[in-house]
C-alpha cells in the first residue's frame, strides 16, 4: 500500500526538524529528485491533482510537501487527490498542517503515517533555551530565560533564531534581563508581546501594522489570540490587586511582573479599567471562536476587525458587552 505522510501541530521548530530528517532519508537533496512545495490556499485540489498526474521529464522521483493541508476537507477533493496519488508511483506526498487535527482520510486506500507536534510546555521551553545557550558556551540567568519566553511567546523555531543571534555578542558575558529586553527589541520580528504593547498604548496604526507582520510571518491567528487572552488576564489580575491594595508596585510584584516590563503594565493599568479589560477578553474569546470556524483566507481581515473592536470601545459597544460573561476570568 502506498504511503503518505501527515505532519500536524503548531510546534514549528520540532516539526521542521523532523521534516528535514524525513527528506534526508528520502534522498531529497540528491540529483534526480524534485521537491515541490504547495500551499492549498493558493492552489485548488484540482490543481494539485493535475500536478500529481503530470510527469517530470528530468527527475526520477518527485516529493510534494503540501502545506495548509487542513484546507483539504471536501470528500470529492479527498477522493480526487487520493486517486491521483494512487496513479503516481514515483511521487511521495507529505501533508503539513499547523493544526493538531486534520480531516484527511483516504478510506484505507493509502497508508497514512501521522505525527503530531504539540506545543511543548513552558518547562520544556525553559530547558530547551538553557540547553541551547549551554551548547553555545553562553551563560544566562534563569530570570533572563523566563523573560525571553514571556516576550517571545514562541515555539522552538523562533526561540532558536534568537538564541543563535545572542551568540554574536555574548560569548564572554552572562546574559541578564536587561540584555534580553534590549536585544530582542533591537532585532525582533513583531510578536504577540509587541502587539500587546501597542494595544495597551491604544496605538491603532502600530497595532494594525504589527498584527499584519505577525500573520505574514506565518503565525496562526488562533495562537495570537491565545497569547493576548493570557496577557490580558494577567493585566486584569494586576488591575484588581491594585484596586484592592492601592499600591500599583505591590500589585505588579504580587503577580511577578518582570521589572523591565513594569512600564508597559503601568500604561495598561492607566488606559484600561477592570470593566474594559473584561470587555476586551470577551472580544478575544469571540474572535477565538471566529478563527476556528472561518477559513484562514479571511484571518487577515478578521485580525484587523479584532484590533478595531478592541481599540474602538465606543458607548454602544460597551453596552452590547456589559452583560455578565459566561467566561470566568
Automatic annotation (TrEMBL):
This is DNA-directed DNA polymerase. Its EC number is 2.7.7.7. One of its GO terms (molecular function) is DNA-directed DNA polymerase activity. GO terms for biological process: DNA-templated DNA replication. The keyword Transcription regulation does not apply. One of its GO terms (cellular component) is DNA polymerase III complex. Belongs to the DNA polymerase HolA subunit family.
Amino acid at each position: 500500500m502506498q504511503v503518505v505522510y501527515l505532519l500536524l501541530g503548531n510546534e514549528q521548530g520540532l516539526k521542521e526538524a523532523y521534516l528535514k530528517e524525513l527528506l534526508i532519508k528520502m534522498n531529497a537533496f540528491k540529483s534526480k529528485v524534485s521537491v515541490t512545495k504547495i500551499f492549498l490556499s493558493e492552489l485548488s485540489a484540482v490543481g494539485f491533482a493535475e500536478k500529481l498526474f503530470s510527469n517530470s521529464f528530468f527527475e526520477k522521483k518527485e516529493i510534494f510537501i503540501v502545506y495548509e493541508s487542513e484546507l483539504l476537507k471536501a470528500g470529492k477533493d479527498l477522493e480526487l487527490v487520493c486517486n491521483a496519488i494512487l496513479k503516481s508511483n514515483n511521487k511521495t506526498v507529505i501533508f503539513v498542517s499547523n493544526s493538531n487535527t486534520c480531516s484527511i482520510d483516504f478510506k484505507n486506500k493509502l497508508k497514512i503515517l501521522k505525527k503530531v507536534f504539540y506545543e511543548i510546555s513552558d518547562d520544556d521551553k525553559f530547558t530547551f533555551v538553557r540547553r541551547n545557550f549551554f551548547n553555545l558556551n553562553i551563560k544566562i540567568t534563569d530570570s533572563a530565560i523566563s523573560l525571553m519566553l514571556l516576550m517571545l511567546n514562541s515555539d522552538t523555531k523562533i526561540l532558536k533564531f534568537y538564541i543563535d543571534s545572542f551568540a554574536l555578542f555574548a560569548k564572554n558575558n552572562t546574559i541578564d534581563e536587561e540584555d534580553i529586553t534590549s536585544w530582542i527589541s533591537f532585532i525582533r520580528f513583531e510578536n504577540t508581546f509587541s502587539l500587546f504593547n501597542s494595544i495597551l498604548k491604544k496605538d491603532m496604526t502600530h497595532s494594525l501594522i504589527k498584527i499584519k507582520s505577525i500573520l505574514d510571518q506565518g503565525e496562526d491567528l488562533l495562537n495570537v489570540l491565545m497569547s493576548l487572552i493570557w496577557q490580558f488576564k494577567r493585566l486584569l489580575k494586576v488591575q484588581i490587586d491594585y484596586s484592592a491594595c492601592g499600591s500599583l508596585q505591590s500589585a505588579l510584584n504580587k503577580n511577578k511582573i518582570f521589572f523591565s516590563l513594569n512600564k508597559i503594565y503601568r500604561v495598561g493599568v492607566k488606559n484600561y479599567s477592570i470593566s474594559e479589560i473584561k470587555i476586551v477578553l470577551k472580544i478575544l474569546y469571540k474572535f477565538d471562536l471566529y478563527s476556528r470556524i472561518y477559513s484562514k483566507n479571511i484571518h487577515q481581515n478578521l485580525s484587523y476587525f479584532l484590533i478595531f473592536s478592541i481599540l474602538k470601545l465606543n458607548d454602544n459597544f460597551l453596552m452590547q458587552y456589559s452583560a455578565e460573561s459566561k467566561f470566568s476570568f
